[in-house]
Amino acid sequence: MTRRTTATAYARAGLLGNPSDQYGGKALACSIFDFEARVELAAADRFAVISNPEERLDGAHFKEVAARLRERGCYEADRLVRAAIVRFAEGADDLAAIPDDDPCLKFQLRYETGIPRQAGLAGSSALVIATLRALAHWFDRPLGRVELAERALAAEVEDLGIAAGPMDRVIQSYEGLMHMDFAEPRTPASYRRLDPALLPPLFLAWDPRIGRASGAIHRNVQVRWLAGDPEVRAAMEVFPALVDEGVACLERGDVAGFKKCVDRNFDTRASIFDLGERDVRMVEIGRARGAAVKLCGSGGAVVGVMDDPDQFAEIEGGFRQAGFRAIRPRLAAEAP
Predict the structure, then answer these.
(1) Same domain assignment for residues 213 and 102
(2) Does some domain include residue 335?
(3) Which domain CATH number covers 36?
(4) Marked catalytic residue, from 21, 78, 168, 279
(5) pLDDT score for 77
(6) Does residue 214 sit in the same domain as residue 178?
(7) What is the pLDDT of residues 155-175, one digit of tens each?
(8) Quick one: which of 89, 82, 17 has its CA closest to 269?
(9) Which of 104, 70, 105 is nearest to 90 (CA)?
(10) In this predicted structure, what is the pLDDT of residue 73?
(11) Contact at 8 Å (CB) between 325 and 227?
């Protein structure tokens, strides 16, 4: 039987706290199991990364390709998968001891993603996480959840120069509903799992047209932070407090209080980020119909909190009329 392994990672919605995760803040986020990135490895005569025909990456074996990528960088087609390959190879200390003709070094890596592109749903990090998971399983070198998240973050920030924080990688590593504290040092004690049943009814809406890359959106605020900008510094103090307050609201069943936190999170973000007309419009559509609404991530998608799931029909109609898509997200994984 041909050896084969498959790994996935899911979209996520930041519910509170983002973007303070880049600045040692906190976040509350949940997995969106409606959208996933999938990576499949299968035994072959040579190592190859396969997506579109024009994006083929191959070589005699895995180690040769990993070394070549380290030398020439990952800023081309398949760059996320390439950066994940480099990060995995650098962390596998005993990889060099594997003979070049060992069959485990020769396989095809195929990937695909159904996560809307550049919609602020963490599609990029999902592909990195799924690749690292698949490689870890293939080589029988398990990665703990924190290590997986940190390697994925390093692949994007250090290898690709993307302005990003740890939130996406942590929620995609742990999955479910997570209360996360990003103060250094980040350890398993930094992350607390919550029951998704605590959440009030949610909706997710997004623009099906491709938006801007998240790194470009974050870069200006990052520069202002480093320069000591008082507005940015003050905002980054607000976000972590909203996370703690929001979690307390969930745990006591205070939907109205949680909605206020969600709305304030968006308003605080709007005070320091240059938000596009599209993103503001999506927030307005949901708010006009009684929901609390914020961006899921960097822009292109929003998550909304409703008092009653019956509100969704009207909300979905409003988004559809404006050219957007909306769903009630699936917050729990399907049983195997």
Answers:
(1) no
(2) no
(3) 3.30.230.10
(4) 168
(5) 40
(6) no
(7) 999 999 888 899 999 999 999
(8) 17
(9) 70
(10) 55
(11) no
Asked, as a colleague might, if the bond just before 116 is cis with ω within 30 of 0, I would say no
Higher pLDDT, 76 or 246: 246
> Cβ(295)–Cβ(205) under 8 Å?
no
In which residue are the tokens 């996560």 written? 115
**Bond prior to 19 in cis (omega within 30° of 0):** yes
Q: Which residue has the higher pLDDT, 72 or 48?
A: 48
Same domain as 90, residue 37: yes
Dig out the tokens for 103 from the structure. 């069959």
Judge contact between 182 and 165, C-beta under 8 A: yes
Are residues 19 and 164 part of one domain? yes
- pLDDT tens sequence across 192-243: 999 999 999 999 999 988 665 555 567 788 888 889 999 999 999 999 999 9
Do residue 141 and residue 225 come from a single domain? no
Q: Does 168 qualify as catalytic in the annotation?
A: yes
Helix (H, G, I), strand (E, B) or coil at 303: strand
Question: Do 176 and 67 fall into the same domain?
Answer: yes
End of a domain among 135, 170, 194? 194
What stretch of H or E contains 65? helix 62-72
- Measured CA to CA, the distance from residue 305 to residue 260 in angstroms comes to 10
Alpha carbons within 13 A on the beta-carbon side of 196: 17
* pLDDT at site 74: 52
Cβ atoms of residues 260 and 266 within 8 Å: no
Strand partners, 202: 305
For residue 96, give the nearest of 121, 131, 148, 61 by alpha carbon.
61
Structure tokens belonging to residue 290: 């009684």
DSSP classification of residue 157: I
The two structure tokens encoding residue 96: 């060099």
Which domain CATH number covers 228?
A: 3.30.70.890
Q: Residue 118 burial (CB < 10 Å; 0-12/13-18/19+)?
A: buried
Q: Which of 247, 281, 251, 283 is nearest to 267 (CA)?
A: 283
Do residues 25 and 114 both lie within one domain? yes
Domain of 250? Answer: 198-327
Number of domains in the chain: 2
